[in-house]
Design a protein that fits this description.
Layout (H helix, E strand, L loop, with lengths): L1 E5 L2 E4 L1 H18 L3 H12 L15 H14 L4 H17 L5 H19 L2 H13 L7 H14 L9 H17 L5 E2 L6 H22 L8 H15 L2 E2 L4 H7 L3 H30 L6 E3 L17
Antiparallel strand pairs: 1-2, 1-5, 3-4
Helix pairs in contact: 1-8, 1-9, 3-4, 4-5, 5-6, 5-7, 8-9, 8-10, 8-11, 9-10, 10-12
Organism: Acanthaster planci (Crown-of-thorns starfish)
Family: Belongs to the cyclin family.
Keywords: Cell cycle, Cell division, Cyclin
Length: 314
């Protein structure tokens, strides 16, 4: 994965594409006459999600499978909603079924991704994944095995995969929060010389996308409701951006979560961020020694570089 330097630090190049997608989501929320009804429907559906237990004997392989699916989504430019739905399906299915063979785990992960792509994406993206499946040695199974796995998954979810994810809630929260912030002068940016709204609009999407990725990689977030994960991503981003207050009254009203509801998840996200920051700085020094300072290659765990002190904000 490539990381590109911005004034505030290193961000994955793929997040630049995600910024555009999230901006489109924001416009959709702003222009929709059914915003309130859609949000109420998502909250209602959220209560009906299959609970995550975390008892799969293959739980230690989950991170590898999620990263593999994320790489496929990045390669074929598949929407982030697809990945979140696919991981949701993977988690719940692995909870109830013991799958020993690695080839079957790959088949399961790929089938989750393919079903999600059929549901969320354009037909051309489905075709690209089908071609990959036919040519890849990782998922080398016959069509009958794939169709059997697809049917088993759909039956497991009672053919209902209309599930809200953290990405859906995040789009709504960010849009509503931006509208509230534009009419408020109570926010203070402790580390930014420009306007607070300008600062948050530029970098909030990058940080929230980064923390969304963390929430997928760490199965601990699968225990939480998607709306809570989305709220935690916003709060963790505000800590990194040093926005004060970290959690405003308008955010409490919009998300329906108080600080104490999300504090544990924020701390977990920021601990991961600290590890990623150190890795990014170390690799930046190594890369600088070779005379390249513009574009750097990192592993998937590398993250945005930030010099803020989190201990005071949490």
């Amino acid at each position: 994965m490539h990381f590109i330097w911005f004034e505030r630090g290193y961000f994955p190049a793929v997040l630049l594409v995600e910024d555009c997608i999230m901006a489109q989501d924001a416009q959709w929320w702003l222009n929709s006459d059914l915003t309130g009804d859609i949000y109420s429907s998502m909250k209602s559906q959220e209560e009906k999600l299959v609970p995550f237990v975390g008892q799969s004997p293959q739980l230690h392989l989950r991170r590898y499978l999620v990263d593999w699916m994320a790489i496929l989504c990045e390669k074929y430019e598949i929407d982030r909603h697809v990945l979140h739905l696919a991981v949701y399906m993977l988690d719940r299915f692995m909870d109830r079924y013991a799958i020993v063979q690695e080839s079957q785990l790959h088949l399961l992960a790929f089938t989750c991704l393919q079903i999600s792509t059929k549901f969320e994406e354009r037909e051309e993206k489905v075709s690209k994944l089908s071609i990959y499946h036919a040519q890849s040695s990782v998922t080398s199974t016959n069509k009958e095995d794939y169709l059997q796995m697809e049917l088993l998954l759909l039956q497991f979810f009672d053919w209902n995969i209309t599930q809200p994810s953290a990405t859906h809630f995040l789009g709504y929260f960010l849009t509503e929060a931006a509208a509230a912030a534009s009419s408020s002068r109570n926010e203070v940016c402790r580390s930014w010389q420009g306007g607070c709204n300008e600062y948050s609009n530029i970098y909030m999407h990058k940080y929230t996308n980064y923390f969304l990725e963390i929430s997928l990689q760490d199965h601990a977030f699968s225990f939480a409701k998607p709306s809570l994960v989305a709220a935690s991503c916003i709060a963790a981003s505000r800590v990194c951006l040093q926005l004060s207050p970290t959690w405003t009254a308008s955010l409490t009203r919009i998300t329906q979560y108080k600080w104490e509801h999300i504090a544990t998840h924020i701390e977990r996200m920021l601990r991961t961020h600290d590890v990623d920051e150190k890795a990014a700085k170390c690799q930046a020094k190594e890369k600088t020694s070779y005379g390249s300072q513009k574009t750097m290659s990192y592993n998937r765990e590398a993250a945005v570089s930030h010099s803020g002190d989190y201990s005071r904000a949490i």
